[in-house]
Design a protein that fits this description.
It is built from 8 helices and 6 strands. It has 210 residues and is mainly alpha-helical. Bound molecules: adenosine-5'-diphosphate and zinc ion.
Length: 210
């Protein structure tokens, strides 16, 4: 677990590749559906583009389906799931149904300022090279340089505009922080400092997984 920009996906990918675990990322599953133009993808997009969560029934159905494809003996890193209290209850039953056990909840913590600068992809004016941070200092008119009116090059994900980034952080606090509290009360949470470089964080996580 961790807020948007905490590095969950990147780090999960690292452990999956080096240890042969399975990666179950709901954000990635939604993006794959989106790029393949499935009905699920179209539905998910309308929520993702606003920075909102996809409805629980849809998300839980997708996770249930994906779980059937992973051999029982394979360890799974859930990335971005569960993100709401109902999803947490669903995970508990899905794991019980498939004879699995929740081993730990790793919570990646990153100061808000760092999240904003990581998420706010830096963009540059093609004409005068002025650098903007979409989260911290966006151009007044999207895509247009304040100084010279030149073209400011865009982002890669449709949910990475500054308003949407702030909204994603807000939704995390509202809906996902309670999930962490729940797991805390069960004594399952391992907190990991997610600040610094990719390899700093990988080393801290390796210790937390031990
Ligand atoms: P991040 O954690 O950086 O926001 P993700 O790739 O995990 O990125 O998620 C991107 C988007 O996909 C979310 O903003 C949300 O709209 C949707 N999403 C991902 N996981 C869930 C989930 N468990 N429940 C509902 N929506 C989800
Ligand atoms: Zn310019």
């Amino acid at each position: 677990m961790g807020p948007p920009g905490s590095g969950k996906g990147t780090q999960a990918q690292h452990f999956v590749e080096t240890r042969g675990w399975s990666h179950l990322s709901t954000g990635e599953l939604f993006r794959t559906n989106l790029s393949q133009g499935t009905a699920l993808g179209t539905l998910a997009r309308s929520f993702m583009d606003k920075g909102s969560y996809v409805p629980d029934e849809v998300t839980i159905g997708m996770v249930r389906e994906r779980l059937t494809q992973i051999p029982r003996a394979t360890r799974i890193i859930f990335d971005g799931f569960p993100r709401t209290v109902p999803q947490t209850a669903a995970l508990t039953s899905l794991l019980a149904e498939s004879g699995r056990r929740l081993e730990a909840v790793v919570l990646m913590e990153v100061p808000r300022e760092q999240l904003l600068s990581r998420l706010g992809a830096r963009v540059t004016c093609a004409a005068c090279q002025t650098v903007y941070s979409l989260a911290v200092r966006p151009p007044k008119v999207p895509g247009v340089c304040d100084r010279c009116g030149g073209v400011v090059a865009g982002t890669t994900r449709s949910d990475e505009s500054p308003e949407i980034i702030l909204r994603r952080l807000e939704v995390y606090e509202e809906q996902t922080a309670p999930v962490a509290s729940h797991y805390d009360s069960l004594g399952l949470v391992r907190r990991v400092d997610g600040s610094g470089t990719m390899s700093d964080v990988t080393a801290r996580l390796a210790a937390a997984f031990a």
